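Supplementary material to the annual report.
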Amino acid sequence: MVSSLAVDITPSSKAFKLFFNHEQIRTMSRVKRRTTHPPYWHVLKNNQRDDEKISSDNLRFVREVIQDKYKNKSPIKGSDLGIEKTEWDPKTKRSGVIARNIGMQHMWEKDGKKIICTVLQVLDNHVIRYVPPEEYANSVIGAKMFKNRKPLGCLVVGAEATNPDRFTRQYCSLFNEVGLLPKKRLARFIVTPNAALPPCTPLTAGHFVIGQAVDVYGKTIDYGFQGVVKRWGFKGGPASHGATKFHRRGGTIGTGRDKARVWPGQKMPGHMGSERRFNRGLKIVRINMKYNIVYVKGTVPGPTNSIVQIFDTILPRRKFTEAPPHPTYFPPEDGTLPQEDIWDSSLHVFGSPSISV
Amino acid sequence: MAIVEHLASLLRKPIETSDEAGERSVSTQKTGDESGNTVIVAPPEFRFMYPEFLPDPAPETRNRLREKLERMDMLQRRSVIEIPEFYTGSIMAVTVADANSPNKFARFVGICIQRGGSGLRAWFILRNVVDKQGVEILYEMYCPLIQKIEVLRLERRLDESLLYLRDALPEYSTFPLNMEQERRLNNSVVPINPIKVKLRPRPWLERWERQNLQGVEDLNLPQRFYDKAEKVAKPWEKYDLMLHYRKTIPAEEQEKIFAEVHSQLQQQELKRKLRRRRGFDNEQ
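Predicted assembly:
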């Protein structure tokens, strides 16, 4: 994929020879790597005012008001929500889930091989809103996404309920319709209309199936401003043998003949990390229903205690062949508790006898 | 039957026996909290007996929930296999399932020269000299391939890490592979072996003169080595409270952690003792 340049590079042009004599093809040279500010249509989220000097009586009153407003509702059962019994088909896209990467743990397979698993804690996810396909295709992002494709719906899911004091009124108003405590984290999941969920639906670890493959989206570890050796893997210079001030530098940045300038995309020191990345096709090896924990085989972008999003995989050979909990998992109505700790069949359960080969 | 009943009644009472190896006078200290309810507190020796239950102190990777789940998994594994108390300097035998061995199990005897890791990653290294060849094997304590861990001689040395045995004369690392378990003379105290090991002549793998080793004989090096060691030394580190604080888990958290696992570990110990006694009685 060659990036678009201002030069005419059709085979008939002079520039073609100059361009294609070069061994390197500079891709991704004019693509902006990341934005750190939120989009313009986002409302201001965090409370900007300083801590007001509020008397303890008034503080108590404010807390009572908050409690009254967000009084505990009874747990939502599957039958109450009025989801039309939709059928699952292989082209269905289910909702994803917001989780926190709480660390890594070793597990062992039945033949004694050690695997490293990432522990993901599925936070208190609730569906905030469903945007049907026609409406979503008219939005800014939706128009870009579905330019020449059939539009899909969008589920807005929130996680980590917090005290409304920390947020602005405009942000809290996003949750007024559903009557939930404002969530610290919001995410959008693209779903097919048959996997739509009504607002206030909880999403838990049971949404996933043991042995399925998932894609995990996260922002990579932020390394800050890094030099060329760490950022791009350059070899630098010799540590001794008379090298004067040339140990971790980049060296030459151009030839001087062709193009006679530094090419865009030249690898140099700069900010490293904090990039959006997907790790695809990670297998779920264990689910803990009591603590809402999902153990995923492999690593996940981002540092420990960072927020990630988990989706059903898009890799074609590892997609679902049988129906998963569609559109999401609901605990059984007759009150029977689900199995607390579910292990993949290939894994050695810790309470079982030692492996003998 | 009377013996079984007696031992079953032990399960109901707090432990007061001090009999078998691996159990020093483990007393359940019952302290009261503010509401007057008794709170079970694990004895302070637990942080030496079970150091892998304490998490890695680096704050970037800490998460209380994951540590708790990991401890639950560790206890599950410990319910299947006995992982005894040991220290660097103890002589141990480990039996591992091995597909390439003739009887499918491989047993190795050696002295523990180093232990580390926290949680399910806990490991220890055993060293021995077999056919004049020094052999070291790193075992992961919670690996399910391990069938049995025996402590043949429970003792400590003057140093926390015995890596200098690699540069010592081979007789200090040689232990018979058919060594039998030795009886402990005193169950309440783990003896410290004050042996001073003789090193081979230089070159060495590390600069032992810079490491303040207590368990080696006088190194007899030219003075310039000791001068350089002094230059490079950081004597202020022993006064650096924050450095030590960052390397350890605070005492209050340690108490909480061990209080959580204490009762389960005690129960497992009792069950093992019962099984051992029953086995002994059946043999008789």
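Chain B has two domains: 39-83+249-283, 85-229.
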